[in-house]
Write a structure and sequence with these properties.
heterotrimer, A alpha+beta, B mainly alpha, C alpha+beta, B: mainly alpha, 13 helices, C: alpha+beta, Cytochrome-c3 Hydrogenase, chain B, 3-stranded antiparallel β-sheet, 15 helices, about 50% helix
Chain lengths: ~140, ~300, ~400
């Protein structure tokens, strides 16, 4: 039975630095194995699509450009991703990894949430195709 | 000039702008101190001002089922009462602008008017949280008011006057905290009860009844009540400091003494769990009132014996 | 103002949106002055249809879906599910993986109990204790982030093992964290059992006898605070709890103070068992291969979540998608104790009694039907459920 059992804490913290941080101005480095944005190394991919099949949030799409030449493009929807790392677990060729640097992913626009990984010319080819399709069938709005 | 002086003192100093500004500063200091005691950073210096400006700019919703004119009038009356009370206390260490025999009683009543207005404002609305909050506010008012008044009467009796300026003048030569420690403790805790600070925040306990009597208030009304409370914090601290801590003769002394009191108040706020309303009433009537009465009795007897 | 002059029941509604509730739920307290005379509970504001959604996904995808049933005890849900599916598939998970599962589960219990300590203190208006216990909870959150890569949904499990290993540097970081937390927890124990103003809000509030606790079907720390000897980690050990056993923690008073005592003492027990695991880590693999298709069958998987017994029923039909998954969360069983113990207390005690069972609202959003004693249980088909839903919301 006593009154003011927290007096010690209260008194000491007057002379201590606050535990909270002014986040956007002060930031701590992220831990080494933080699960942030997904990175895909197209050069190693064999197109088994195991990552796509077991993605719980359907954030990955594998687009085959040329199966024989092992040219694949991955369309990655960051906004759907739950950063569970199941795709990293599934990949037998270690072409997927989660970054521990890119984790502040908020954006006011929709575009940064779709990321293409693959050879530059393949991505350009895909984007050009999509643009052409948009021209042919103009959207209704 | 003679007609201008009361207006100036009501609107600029020591009432009006000065009390409002210092109220906001004291509120910030209080929040910052509590935050530091809880190992947090706390708000930036302009936060209370920003809150008030934001509230003033917002729409005031008058809920269904209330008496509209009363709903709008209560915040104004509450703030006006607090500002008027500022005229009778030695604000910032200067002698009070107005003074007459018995102004102590008037000041204490003016200070209670704010709480009364909050209680009535809560009872005016149909909201169930407001009604419970209003009941609790008024219950708490009846429990701390008598001991608080008794605690302020102690210095009045030894000074032999009911005029604040004279009591403050007497207290200038006597640190009454040494001779009347019980009165001091009762006064400072009574002030916390008056301002509904933790642990006496049962009337606005957010985890039970949202924000108590003021749940339905928004915009201007809420802003006025809030700055009214801030003003009362300054006035209350000034009164207690002037009576018990050896008077206030200059602004520096005012700052140091009220600041020290605020530190104590902030410490008490962060040390305890909230008391239930029945525990508050029990505490005040079983302990607070009895102690204050005992102190008063001793004073009266000593006075009678001519010591 | 109350327009109707005739005496009527004064009901204080709390929720679905209310500062005392961090998740939506609706409670109607009938009060007589400040005294509560009866309580009605209505849940279901965050019903997400997870059980149905689980039938539409394959086993691996379900692991992450079910991890999100509860925001606080995410790991234990995934563990219960993984243990069940592994049993169906007839797979033995390596001991090191099981030890890591237990390690993460105990770390999660530490974070959950510290969180509860803070929330309960906040409901009592003791914000200083709230701030300090949450500040110290960051220690264990950081440890979990450093281990797994995420603060909340650790995703430690995969079917057939765990995702990450624990190396020596991480083990040292955990030991340091546990030392710090143990010291702080001793301090909190002294506060919750000695601070006069706080004891006035907890002692004798929401008291439940052991018989009552049994009859109401309470689980976890809520039941153990009333002296019920029930802890699945001891009664039917899963994962690595046979190699690294824990001691049961009980109290007899059954009031809120006893629940504080049980929670805090369980923290000490968790610190102890975490250190034991770190000192005696079994070597070896952390994952075995899992078939995509799970053989036909059904199983029950029970684990001890921070809030009590968590129950999973899994039925497979030989494909890569489960036929049916049924979850019974501990919070759901504990709600009855709130409506039983609340009447007679003050309105001011209600937030404390509500939080006293450490409720998880999104866990509790499952369909409940209470049958009278003498009636046999009833089988609901999908069509029945659908019809019931249509009728209910009409």
């Amino acid at each position: 039975m006593k009154i003011g059992a927290m007096f010690g804490d209260v008194f000491q913290s007057m002379f201590k630095r606050p535990a909270t941080e002014r986040y956007p101005f002060e930031r701590r480095p992220a831990p080494e194995n933080l699960r942030g944005e997904l990175f895909f190394d197209a050069a190693k991919c064999v197109g088994c699509a195991l990552c796509v099949k077991e993605c719980p949030s359907e954030a990955l799409e594998l687009i085959t450009i040329d199966k024989a030449a092992k040219r694949f493009v991955i369309r990655y929807h960051v906004d759907r991703c739950t950063f569970c790392a199941q795709c990293v677990q599934n990949c037998r060729f270690k072409c997927l990894s989660l970054s521990n640097e890119k984790w502040e992913l908020a954006s006011g626009k929709k575009d940064p949430f779709t990321i293409y990984y693959g050879r530059d010319e393949d991505i350009e080819f895909l984007l050009a195709k999509a643009a052409r399709r948009n021209l042919e069938t103009p959207s209704e709005d | 000039m003679n007609e201008l002086f009361p207006l100036l003192s009501f609107l600029v100093f020591p009432g009006g702008i000065f009390v409002l500004a210092s109220g906001l500063v004291y509120e910030w200091t209080d929040r910052k101190l509590v935050a530091r005691m809880q190992n947090r950073i706390g708000p930036r210096w302009f936060q209370p001002l920003a809150d008030v400006v934001k509230l003033l700019a917002k729409e005031e919703v008058v809920p269904a089922g209330v008496n509209r004119s009363m709903f709008l009038a209560f915040p104004v009356v509450a703030l006006a009462a607090a500002l008027t009370a500022a005229l009778y206390v030695p604000m910032a260490g200067f002698s009070p602008s107005f003074s007459f025999r018995g102004d102590l009683i008037v000041t204490v009543y003016l200070l209670s008017l704010l709480t009364l207005c909050i209680g009535l404002a809560g009872a005016n609305t149909a909201d169930r949280f407001s009604i419970i909050g209003a009941t609790r506010t008024l219950t708490q008012l009846f429990s701390y008011e008598a001991p608080f008044l008794l605690a302020l009467l102690g210095p009045a009796i030894v000074a032999g006057t009911w005029q604040i300026s004279e009591i403050a003048g007497y207290a200038h030569n006597h640190w009454l905290i040494l001779t009347q420690p019980i009165g001091f403790v009762v006064a400072i805790i009574g002030l916390m009860g008056k301002l509904e600070l933790p642990p006496f925040d049962a009337p606005e306990a957010e985890t039970e009844i949202v924000s108590g009597a003021l749940t339905e208030y928004s915009g201007r009304g809420l802003a006025l009540f809030r700055i009214g409370k801030d003003a009362e914090l300054v006035i209350g601290l000034t009164l207690v400091a002037a009576f018990y801590l050896g008077g206030l003769s200059n602004p520096l002394e005012f700052l140091l003494k009220t600041g020290g009191l605020l530190l104590v108040v902030a410490g008490l706020q962060s040390l305890f769990a909230r008391l239930r309303i029945d525990q508050v009433v029990g505490l005040w009537w079983r302990v607070g009132a009895l102690l204050a009465l005992l102190q008063l009795l001793v004073l009266v007897v000593l006075q009678g014996m001519g010591i | 103002m109350i327009q109707n002059p005739k005496p009527q029941k004064f009901i204080v509604p709390i929720g679905p949106q209310h500062p005392a509730l961090k998740e939506p739920g609706h409670f109607e307290f009938t009060v007589d002055g400040e005294i509560v005379t009866s309580v009605a509970i209505r849940l279901g504001y965050v019903h997400r249809g997870i059980e149905k959604a689980a039938e539409e996904r394959n086993y691996v995808q379900d692991l992450y879906l079910l991890e999100r049933v509860c925001g606080i005890c995410s790991h234990i849900h995934a563990t219960a599910y993984a243990l069940g599916v592994e049993k169906l598939a007839g797979i033995t998970v390596p001991p090191r993986a099981q030890a890591i599962r237990e390690l993460v589960a105990e770390l999660e219990r530490v974070h959950s109990h510290l969180l509860w300590l803070g929330v309960a203190a906040h409901e009592a208006g003791f914000d200083t204790l709230f701030m300090y216990s949450w500040r110290d909870r960051e220690t264990v959150m950081d440890i979990l982030e450093r281990l797994s890569g995420n603060r909340v949904n650790y995703s430690a499990n995969v079917l057939g093992g765990v995702k990450f290993n624990v190396d020596a540097a991480q083990a040292d970081a955990i030991r340091r964290g546990m030392d710090f937390l143990e010291e702080r927890t001793h301090h909190y124990y002294n506060i919750v059992t000695a601070e006069e103003t706080f004891l006035r809000r907890t002692r004798g509030v929401g008291t439940m006898s052991a018989d009552q606790a049994e009859a109401l079907g309470t689980l976890g720390p809520t039941a153990r605070a009333s002296g019920v000897q029930r802890d699945l980690r001891i009664d039917s050990p899963y994962a690595a709890y046979t190699e690294f056993p824990v001691q049961i923690v009980t109290a007899s008073a059954g009031d809120l103070e006893a629940r504080f005592v049980v929670h805090v003492n369980e923290l000490f027990e968790s610190y102890r068992v975490i250190r034991v695991i770190l000192d005696n880590f079994p070597p070896g693999e952390i994952e075995v291969r899992m078939p995509r298709r799970i053989p036909e069958g059904e199983t029950i998987s029970r684990v001890e979540a921070p809030r009590g017994e968590l129950f999973y029923f899994i039925k497979s039909n030989g494909t890569d998608q489960p036929e049916r998954i049924k979850i019974r969360t501990p919070s759901l069983s504990n709600w009855a104790s709130v409506s039983a113990t609340a009447p007679g207390h003050k309105l001011a005690d209600m937030p404390m009694i509500l939080v006293g069972i450490d409720p998880c609202f999104s866990c509790s959003d499952r369909s409940v039907s209470i049958l009278p004693h003498d009636r046999q249980s009833k089988l609901w088909t999908w069509e029945d459920l659908r019809q019931y839903g249509i009728e209910y919301y009409r």
